[in-house]
Amino acid sequence: MQMRLSPTVKILLIACFVAFLVQQTVDQFFGGHLLYFFGLVPRSFMFEGKVWQLITYSFLHADPMHLILNMVMLAFVASDIEFKWGRRRFLGYYFFCSIMAGVLYLFLQLFIWKGDGLQTPMVGASGAIYGCLMAYGILFGERTLLFMMLFPMKAKHFIWVLAAVEFLSSVFSGRGGLSSAAHIGGMLAGLGYLWVQSQSAKRASNRLSSKKSTNKFALTGKKKHLKLVVDNPDREDERDPNDKTWH
Predict the structure, then answer these.
(1) 66 within a domain of the structure (yes/no)
(2) I need a surface site. Which of 36, 89, 110, 240 has the fewest CB within 10 A?
């Protein structure tokens, strides 16, 4: 599959690389705590008012391999989505998926696992990227992707296999499966977003069709009315003085 980088995807790639370098440098060499300030920490988000973490966590990554894998996936699938949708819609979708993945992580940590997990930060663009994979599979379903970098598979099948793998990982990995649960959250958010958009487009199309039909009926009725008026005997004594049809 040929890689074409769209303008917004380039900016996201650069932002993630810069954020990783800054965070690693500050935390490791200057004793900073950017990971806990900008990563999504349930306790900080819920009880300390650090609401920006729901956005900023997606720009941080745990290690170089985590960063590289995410950026490669982002580069391969997201650009075509932006080319098709445009920057504004793509960014709205990207951050919607990222935020929903973060919300699911918060819910699981706060209400399911609790305990020490409240202090565990989540970082990475995976939620948004898995949402992009869902959109790619729906928009470009006939294209071929390599599952596990080895097995060719149509995109529309690839996304469901990937979802099944992430689901099994989240179920059987205990707390370690929280990242997989967040991936699923991003995919489900993407699926919901696309479904709502399709339903809205369908309703708009139905309203337009209904309006065209109504206008056509009104126009046809008007023509018939005019024909009846013209065909009436043109006798002065039969005209209604208050009739406005002739004006």
Answers:
(1) yes
(2) 240
C-alpha distance across the termini of the chain, in Å: 68
Nearest partner of 77 among 20, 174, 162, judged by Cα: 162
DSSP H or E run through 146: strand 144-147
Owner of token pair 């040929």: 2
- Judge whether residue 12 has pLDDT over 70: yes
> Which comes out higher in pLDDT, residue 102 or 148?
102
pLDDT band at 210 (very low <50, low <70, confident <90, very high): confident
Least Cα distance to 17 among 67, 91, 90, 77 occurs for 67
Distance CA(151)–CA(236), nearest Å, equals 87
pTM of the model: 0.79
Q: What is the count of structural domains for the chain?
A: 1
Angle, alpha carbons 63-104-116 (nearest 5°): 65
In a domain, residue 95? The reply is yes
Instruction: Report whether pLDDT(116) > 80.
Output: no
pLDDT of 243 strictly over 50: no
- Chain segment 81-107, per-residue pLDDT in tens: 999 999 999 999 999 999 999 999 998
Q: What is the CATH number of the domain that holds 38?
A: 1.20.1540.10
Secondary structure letter of residue 40 according to DSSP = B
Q: Locate tokens 């205990």: which residue?
A: 174
Whether the CB-CB separation of 174 and 92 falls below 8 Å is answered with no
